[in-house]
Amino acid sequence: MVLARRWALRVHFQGAPKLEDFELVQEELEPLQDGEIFYQSEFISVDPYQRNYTLRMPIPPPFTMPGSVVGQVKDSRNLDFPVGTRVVVYDGWREAGIINPTTAGNHGTGLDMVRKAPDIGNLPLSLLLGACGMPGNTAYFGVTEICRPQKGETVLVTGAAGAVGSLVGQISKVKGCKVIGFAGSDDKVAWLKDNLAFDEAFNYKKTTMETSLSKGVPQGVDCFFDNVGGEDASSVIAAMNVCGRVACCGAIASYNVKEPLKTTAIQYFLIRKRLKMEGFQAAQFKDRWDEGVLQMAKWIQEGKLKPQETVVDGFENTPNAFMGLFSGDNLGKMVVKV
Question: What is the separation of C-alpha 266 from the centre of its chain, rounded to a whole number of angstroms?
């Protein structure tokens, strides 16, 4: 008999996530059937998207909190996934689990539920959930395929100290761009400039977007990678140069609000400046997934990218790590070490 724990969402979130929204469940796992694998999680990913994703689940709570883990196959009845294989599994916040990689189908984001982990050499396994995983590919494809910055252009990123934003800025520097970032504390602003070589960074809690734009980008913005949305996004779009590109990646400003945000209309600027604005998800590039992972790993190994992680120890602390995303507790990618 094998017992394993999982975190379930007990009730739908109302406003910011709270500890009482979750329930720790212990269950007995069934014996392996043909085609199945038994995996043990090593790291769990917590991400802002998981909050709104729960609203799209086809069943009402309680259900296992959605999310991904990197783990190792400990028992197998699937020849393609022998014991010892490292896997990335999109099966929720589980300490361990049983799944059939062949029949599990696609995760709600469009990615396969079980993927063999690409070989990233001697880099930490946790990066498979961060700079060499979904956040990394979100940044990589968002910059290279949506924004397409040219050398000498100005790239502005909101949520710049987060898992995606911090990589967006660094990739843009690799491309020879001037990079402006916005984050939520003076320490994060200093980290962006001192550690990641952002050309300028601002604490959005201490200054208006208009003042920051006037000081930091008087020449205008060519590429805008938006992780936040809200009125600040409208202000950036108003300050963009002709033929600028906007990659809409996240909208964390609206995730915990109870009433829809009211923001300045942007259509005038889109038309007058001939802007291109596109929403995207990393999963739309799933056929090129390993390309992004391996390129990010290569840049890290070459010292061109510095991945940053906030690691929380203990499976029992997964909800606390998740809640910390919405209060700015993380620097870079937030992961839980099981």
Answer: 26
